[in-house]
């Protein structure tokens, strides 16, 4: 796993729950308490152990913790700007999500971002398909989309849908978001999850200030 991912988990846990919680989680997972180098790579198993240790320590479901992580990430201004660059309103932002992987790779070519696919339906309904080497990214994106709805001032119902995960066997099987099939993850398997969005009101509130010129000029 890219060190930036592990570093983000470290910052999320430390900023949200305190240094003592991070130290306890790191010790349980066998991670360096001093933290991760953002540009190095680490074993994927260590990232899974970090999340598992955090859920046990906090007594929180894994998906809920990952959604909180996603919401936290878009409070970081560099990522927020990358996301807001996708559109002037929440609908345009959603429609730009398929390009997010490419935009991220332009900045960090070795960052393993999930593949995103968006289907739009009637009455402001969208389904985001998240395909990644490891399960959990769907929950992260659900948290990000909730936070970005607030950022844009939109009112939306957002739900994360993930199939059951069997870590014991290799191979993968997915259906649509209505009837998820078990996913069996091996070293080369892909995990597929979904995030459904029902946009109730695009301009529900004023949203947060965003100046695109500041991004393009480096201000």
UniProtKB/TrEMBL annotation:
It holds the Pfam family HNOB. GO terms for molecular function: heme binding. Signal peptide: none annotated. Residues 2-153 form the Heme NO-binding domain. InterPro entries: H-NOX_domain_sf, Heme_NO-bd, NO_sig/Golgi_transp_ligand-bd. This is Heme NO-binding protein.
